[in-house]
């Protein structure tokens, strides 16, 4: 076994084990930490395949931003996970249906590759040689030309998800003093300034 194969099996094994622990761990903080470990090892696999740009994006964006954001949200929000688990049986049928659909899609993908491996070997957009164009430049040309509309649709989906997260977490809290911009703008000198005559050598 060569060194490259050894590193591949190492990264792949840790990635699969970390992905399993993400869904198996009962502590949400530990799940996020296992998710970060899976991302880092997946970045190692990208490096071995020569996709250094994807590895960098995976570490900077997903590990440095998304996973850390998940960690802070889980640690800072007072989420009652016991109450969330109470409705598990209610959503079990639709969750099982979605899981079966995903399983069928994976079987179809693996079956298509086993039946006709030439589908993978002859991509629609050939990858140029590294001496002609860098990996990052080739990815940018494909992403912003052939798959431009799909890229914009993905950004729109992320925007909707962000707005949904803000709406779900935005709630009124009792006892918190908030600013009222309309009242502040409507203040006059009579309502904003109070002149009081203080006796000499006495307090208010």
Tags for this model:
single chain, 204 residues, Four Helix Bundle (Hemerythrin (Met), subunit A), mainly alpha
Structure notes:
It is a single chain. The chain is an all-alpha fold and 204 residues long. Among the domains are: 78 residues, NADH-ubiquinone/plastoquinone oxidoreductase chain 6, subunit NuoJ (Four Helix Bundle (Hemerythrin (Met), subunit A)); 43 residues, no CATH class. Helix content is 71%, strand content 0%. It is built from ten helices and no strands. Helix 1 packs antiparallel against helix 2 and helix 2 runs antiparallel to helix 3. The longest helix is centred in the N-terminal third of the chain and has 25 residues. The protein is elongated. The N and C termini lie far apart (86 Å). The mean pLDDT is 80.
């Amino acid at each position: 076994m060569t060194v490259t194969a050894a590193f591949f099996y190492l990264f792949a094994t840790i990635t699969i084990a970390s992905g399993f622990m993400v869904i198996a761990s009962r502590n949400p903080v530990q799940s996020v930490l296992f998710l970060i470990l899976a991302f880092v090892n997946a970045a190692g696999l990208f490096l071995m395949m020569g996709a250094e740009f994807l590895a960098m994006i995976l570490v900077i964006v997903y590990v440095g931003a998304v996973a850390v954001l998940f960690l802070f949200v889980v640690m800072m929000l007072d989420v009652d996970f016991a109450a969330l688990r109470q409705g598990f049986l209610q959503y079990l049928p639709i969750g099982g249906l979605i899981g079966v659909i995903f399983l069928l899609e994976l079987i179809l993908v693996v079956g298509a590759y086993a039946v006709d491996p030439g589908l993978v070997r002859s991509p629609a957009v050939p990858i140029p040689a590294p001496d002609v164009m860098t990996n990052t430049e080739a990815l940018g040309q494909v992403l912003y030309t052939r798959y431009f509309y799909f890229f914009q649709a993905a950004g729109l989906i992320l925007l909707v998800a962000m707005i949904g997260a803000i709406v779900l977490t935005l709630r009124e809290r009792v006892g918190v003093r908030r600013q009222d911009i309309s009242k502040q703008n409507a203040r006059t000198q009579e309502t904003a300034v109070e002149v009081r005559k203080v006796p000499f050598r006495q307090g208010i």
